[in-house]
Amino acid sequence: QRRMFTNVEMDNSTGVAVIKMNSPPVNSLSLEFLTEFAINMEKLEMDRGCRGVILTSSVPRIFSAGLDITEMYGKTPEHCGAFWRAVQEMWLKLYGSSMITIAAINGSSPAGGCLMAISCDYRIMTDYPKYSIGLNETKLGIVAPFWFKDTMINCIGNRATEHSLQLGLQYNPPEALKVGLVDQLETEDKLMTTASSVMSQWLAIPDHARQITKSMMRKPIIDQLLRQREADVQNFVKFITKDSIQKSLQMYMEMLKQKKG
Ligand SMILES: CCCCCCCCCCCCC/C=C/C(=O)SCCNC(=O)CCNC(=O)[C@H](O)C(C)(C)COP(=O)(O)OP(=O)(O)OC[C@H]1O[C@@H](n2cnc3c(N)ncnc32)[C@H](O)[C@@H]1OP(=O)(O)O
Fold it and tell me: Which UniProt keywords apply (predicted)?
């Protein structure tokens, strides 16, 4: 029996769907998770009654821990290639969506989790000091691909991205608000109602004008990946299967386990 990684609830009266990521313990983005997510996005995109999506998590304290590290460690080049195509597909569907996308970030959101959030149109984060968000790839000894970097530049600008990416910074909610990585903070109990009320403001704009404007802003980066999609896969496979990178990933996973013990 297939496992479900996300719950999708569509409200036909408002035209808004809520996607809840539900893959304990940390909503890590496995090949199966990413595939299911992209299919769900495509179904909603095709549904003429769906105009907006709120992305959130049903796992306590975690929005998403990012890419599933076990999908990149000790795997064949073929598996790594299939995994990376699924990462690309998730981003193409989310960043390129014509729907209004709002991230209700109710927990920590490192790396690929941050990418999902900054691929949305608007971000509201729970104001809890222990939560953090950011692209921390350099801390794992890996490099955020150009389309991660460009998505961040479009969100917070060039200088802040350069600083943030080189140091692999993780921001707490007030810092994330200050740098522009999130648009608004909210208490946990009001997060979803605030997300719905922000959605109503966005729904008041005529779809066609908003969609063309969104596409105008995002198309250049999307097209850049589409033009070199296969080369990007090969680049990833070559990089991630290097002994030195595998060693870094192994040490990072050990560090995560030790932190726990
Ligand atoms: C020459 C240059 C060329 C350039 C070419 C570029 C090519 C491309 C390069 C590659 C680019 C890759 C981009 C990568 C993006 C990513 O997303 S990598 C993943 C990054 N994620 C993280 O660093 C997060 C790590 N996790 C945490 O920090 C914490 O777990 C948490 C999310 C803050 C939650 O903490 P807590 O509640 O305390 O839970 P834990 O006890 O730490 O974890 C519970 C179990 O979950 C496991 N786990 C955690 N995160 C992951 C993960 N991302 N993947 C897989 N598994 C994960 C953790 O190990 C625990 O497991 P158990 O011990 O078995 O219970």
Answer: Acetylation, Fatty acid metabolism, Isomerase, Lipid metabolism, Mitochondrion, Signal, Transit peptide
